[in-house]
């Protein structure tokens, strides 16, 4: 397996490093590559002081281990992922498939190193926004609930920023509309900058609705929560196993487990489990292979009415109506 190491920072001075690592040619702010490892495009753009954006649109021709290790400790990465197949997320010796964890957005403090295994034939479309922490303070000041604690949130000695989440529908629409623009469009970089501001605005709104938990965590804590999320996904068809059982499986106290789970995931363990059960129900309905009754039984719902109620609350449509769309 080929290994490619990226040393990220929030400065717009690493295009040469990435071009050398990926084996591409630099054309302005673009890196164009077509070699034995991948074919595709990278775009670097300085958005404003303290904010740099990277677009990755590549298809891999061989299995690659991408290692993201950081040389400084003063930035936060906001990542939006779209792939045609699962990418394996690795933290230390713990790994799982991103699709299985059901997240396509992450916010990661530079102090946490994360690696990914990308399989042959995988197309990856990623937008990465790197914030210098001083620049991020300015954005946090726009959120009423964050403004008073912005300094603590960004203090690496008191808090670690990490969130594995799902992008909101507005952000997904923005990205899909942007992907229709061709690289040879003379206004491509202008559109890209507009997309970045749109994604930042959407995430700030999304963040404003989340509970903010201040806590210093280490890689081992993140690994344990990822392990727990993978365990729940594997057993999503059964009943919720309970916080005490889940905490025991990763050698944590229930109180610490609940706190760290909410910090990393944005929701408590039960909400995560039941939201993903509904997501699984939606996937099953989309196949057209199961009736609503069969889906309710397969996913261990007490009755069809309860599934219908929860499904409508989550997606704004009843299961039978949703199934008729396919």
Concise synopsis of the structure shown:
Helix content is 41%, strand content 26%. The chain contains 13 helices and 13 strands.
The tally of helices reads 13
Q: What is the count of β-strands?
A: 13
pLDDT averaged residue by residue: 83
Helix content: 40-55%
Overall tally of domains: 2
CATH superfamily of the largest domain: Jelly Rolls
The CATH architecture name of the largest domain reads Sandwich
The global form is globular
Physical arrangement of strands within the biggest beta sheet: 2-3-4-5-12-7-10-13
* SSE string: EHEEEEEEEEHEEEHHEHHHHHHHHH
Radius of gyration: 20 Å
Q: Structural class of the secondary structure composition?
A: alpha+beta
Main β-sheet, in a few words? Answer: 8 strands, antiparallel
> Would you tell me which CATH topology of the largest domain applies?
Jelly Rolls
Strand content: 25-35%
Distance between the termini: 39 Å
**CATH domain class name of the largest domain:** Mainly Beta
* Unreliable stretches covering 5 or more consecutive residues: none
């Amino acid at each position: 397996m080929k290994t490619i190491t990226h040393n990220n920072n929030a400065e717009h001075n690493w295009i040469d490093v990435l071009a050398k690592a990926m084996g591409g040619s630099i054309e302005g702010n673009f890196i164009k590559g077509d070699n034995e490892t991948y074919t595709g495009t990278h775009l670097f753009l300085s958005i404003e002081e303290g904010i740099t954006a990277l677009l990755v649109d590549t298809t891999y021709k061989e299995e690659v281990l991408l290692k993201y290790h950081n040389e400084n400790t003063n930035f936060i990465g906001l990542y939006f992922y779209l792939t045609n197949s699962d990418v394996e997320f690795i933290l230390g010796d713990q790994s799982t498939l991103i699709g299985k964890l059901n997240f396509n957005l992450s916010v990661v403090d530079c102090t946490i190193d994360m690696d990914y295994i990308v399989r042959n034939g995988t197309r990856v479309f990623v937008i990465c926004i790197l914030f210098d922490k001083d620049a991020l303070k300015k954005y946090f000041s726009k959120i009423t609930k964050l403004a008073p604690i912005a300094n603590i949130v960004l203090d690496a000695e008191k808090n670690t920023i990490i969130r594995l989440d799902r992008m909101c529908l507005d952000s997904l629409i923005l990205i899909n509309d942007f992907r229709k623009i061709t690289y040879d469009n003379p206004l491509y970089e202008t559109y890209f900058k507009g997309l970045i501001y749109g994604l930042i605005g959407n995430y700030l709104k999304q963040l404003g609705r989340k509970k903010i938990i201040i806590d210093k965590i280490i890689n081992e804590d993140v690994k344990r929560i990822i392990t727990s999320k993978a365990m729940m996904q594997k057993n999503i068809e059964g009943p919720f196993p309970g916080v005490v059982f889940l905490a025991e499986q990763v050698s944590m106290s229930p109180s610490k487990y609940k706190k760290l789970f909410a910090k990393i995931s944005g929701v408590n363990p039960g909400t995560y489990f039941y939201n993903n059960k509904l997501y699984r129900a939606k996937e099953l309905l989309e196949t057209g292979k199961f009736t609503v009754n069969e889906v309710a039984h397969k996913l261990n719902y007490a009755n069809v009415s309860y599934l219908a109620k929860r499904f409508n609350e989550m997606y704004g449509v009843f299961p039978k109506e949703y199934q008729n769309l396919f």
